[in-house]
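User: Sequence in, structure out. Go.
Assistant: Echoing your sequence, followed by the structure tokens.
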Amino acid sequence: MELNILTLCYLIGSVTFIVGLKMLSNPATARKGNLIAAGGMVIAILGTIFLYEEDGQKLGNYGWIFGGIAIGTLIGFLAAKKVKMTAMPEMVSLFNGMGGACAALISIVEYDHMMAHPPFAEGFSFFPPMDTFFQDPAIPYGKVIIILLGLIIGSVSFAGSIIAWGKLNGKVKDFSFKGQHIFNIVMMLAILGLATYLTINIQGSSHVLFYIIFALSLLYGVFFVFPIGGADMPVVISLLNSFTGVAAACGGFLYDNKVMLTGGILVGAAGTLLTILMCKAMNRSLLNVLIGSFGAGAAKAAGGDGKQQGSYKEISLSDTAVVMSYASKVMIVPGYGLAVAQAQHACHELEKLLEAKGVDVKYAIHPVAGRMPGHMNVLLAEADVPYEKLLEMEQANEEFATTDVVLVLGANDVVNPAAKTDPSSPIYGMPILDVELAKNCIVNKRSMKPGYAGIENDLFFQPKTSMLFGDAKKVLQDLIAEIKNL
């Protein structure tokens, strides 16, 4: 009876994961979907703790189990409450790394347990029947393979996520050397070769070889992310997230745990699809992202910094207030500068003030704006901006030609016309927001420094563009005051 109840708990958990993931695809239902999936996870965890049995024995050690849960819950709660929205990408990357580390630790524990109680039999067959491959035949090949996959993928995800976290918060700089991609390929081949050798010779293997694979996987994760530039971080975070999902699914195989397997597969599949969508949004292949070093030294190598752009013009706050107040349609383009300044609430106040004057206000969201997928959507949702006002890139591009004023808040590379006009640019071919089609374009930036891709923005020097320098939050607050005084 208890086994049936545990199976039901796993079924409920699996269903809530699927329902929650579906609801996450819409900003209006995302919060509820997250809670539903979290509720299913709680049911699955409690079911495992109290109902799981092996050889007639339950888990026990409840003090250690709930002590660990309490510590982890406290750390997670405090981290989530204190994190700034600008630091959300770092936290996502860090937590994702913890998932990879967990999967790797599971593999280590299971390998040590297997070697301490070897199920090997004399006269084993190297090719066991397929129907027993993932059970425990004379040599548990399937189990060994799953352990090694969980170890390698989990370790790469953990190490890579930690480097990504460091790069996002500025503690780790881009690093590359000549021949690094070849070095990475050789390292990966070495890892796969050693894993194959260990699988074939599992009877006579030692722990040393297993931990060499572990160490090389960690090292590979570090060098895998090191050369990738900051502009590609949304893709890298999404890719590493899929790695963690696959590693977790390996744990589900090891323990024959349906909910763990389902959750891992969902995360792996969703992360993979999101990675593909991110690459499509930048009109680049995943291979190009991983070896292109976009956002690092590649931009300077392409000569983007040395081009003579001409002069730009500034606009005053009072003129900006007049132009926006008497416009029929205004489009706001949020970028990372908005997040840094924590200006989303001021932006929403400006939106409401303009709408009170009869101005139609909408937001244009580029899929890779910010430092993680959906970063701008999260920021604006926090400020209670209506979801229907958030236009995806394709929708927004259809409306720019009929827009009187576009206000760009801290966005850079996602509005750079060089992506369409300059074949020598490192972002050439990347779909962008066509803000230059509007009648007037006002760009708010702290300075004329290039964006994450490290290149000048042609938009800033076009005749219809005016620069409004300053911190986004203060500029918006002053702009609101000016409009109120008109």
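User: And one key feature?
Assistant: The CA atoms of residues 197 and 205 lie 9 Å apart.
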